[in-house]
Amino acid sequence: MARPVDPTRRARTLEKAADYVLEHGLEGLSLRPLAAALGTSPRMLLYDFESKERLVDEVLAEIRRRLAERLAEVQAGRGDADTLSEVWDWVSAEERAPFMRVFFQTHVDAMANPEAHAGAGRPMIDDWLRFLGSRWHPEALDASTATLYVAVIRGLLLDRLTAPDPERVDQALRRFVDLLH
Predict the structure, then answer these.
(1) pLDDT interval class at 1 (50, 70, 90)
(2) 114: alpha, beta or left, given left = phi > 0 and alpha = psi -120 to 50?
(3) Region 125-145 average pLDDT
(4) In this predicted structure, which of 134-143, 147-156, 166-175 has the lowest mean pLDDT?
(5) Is 84 within 8 Å of 180 (Cβ atoms)?
(6) What is the distance between the alpha carbons of residues 144 and 79, in angstroms, rounded to a whole number?
(7) Regarding predicted confidence, which is higher, 136 or 141?
């Protein structure tokens, strides 16, 4: 009879694995280097998470949880994001770049392989739609408008993360905001 998984060890491993993915990304993620970085073995990772796919899904859920925590801080007023420009300043800040890189890697993976991270894509988008909807009164920001804002922010973030010209991208966001008024 197999002994049960130690939930404390598993939780610590998940936390460290999320840190690893935020630092190194998902591209080419392999159990052997991941296990070495975490001070464990590939066998223990599989014991704790059953499969690489489940480990990755749980890591992505942990990363989403962390980002949601940060979004909740903004929603609770501990951060100021009452306008689209302020949301942009918050989301495009350098300390959130690792989250955004994983966000885009997950979406690209899901496009290339629809079964990859099947449960991650839609919740990531829904998190943003809920966040934007909560910043403004629902009657002022309907679902299609929130979707447009998410698409503009997502597109500009992708450009900002891949192009060495953040000022140009920031200026494009300001131009979009000007068009709204």
Answers:
(1) low
(2) alpha
(3) 68
(4) 134-143
(5) yes
(6) 25
(7) 141
Q: Which two tokens stand for residue 144?
A: 């299609």
Q: What are phi and psi of 147, to 5 degrees?
A: -65, -40
Amino acid of residue 115: E
| pLDDT at residue 46, as a whole number | 94
Place of tokens 């350098």: 94
Query: Which tokens go with 128?
Result: 């943003």
Phi, psi of 132 (to 5 degrees): -65, -40
Mean pLDDT of the chain: 83
Counting Cα atoms < 13 Å in the Cβ hemisphere of 81 gives 22
- What's the rounded Cα separation, in Å, for the pair 168 and 108? 24
For residues 168 and 126, give the distance between their C-alpha atoms in angstroms, rounded to a whole number: 28
Output Rg (C-alpha) for the chain, integer angstroms.
18
Please give the residue that has the higher pLDDT: either 112 or 104.
104
The residue type at 105:
Q
Domain annotation for the chain: domains and CATH numbers:
7-180 (1.10.357.10)
Query: In this structure, which amino acid lies at residue 154?
Result: R
Measure the CA–CA gap between 124 and 104, rounded to whole angstroms. 10
Look up residue 44 and give its two tokens: 């223990």
More confident residue, 111 or 121: 111
Sign of the alpha-carbon dihedral angle for 111, 116, 119, 125: negative
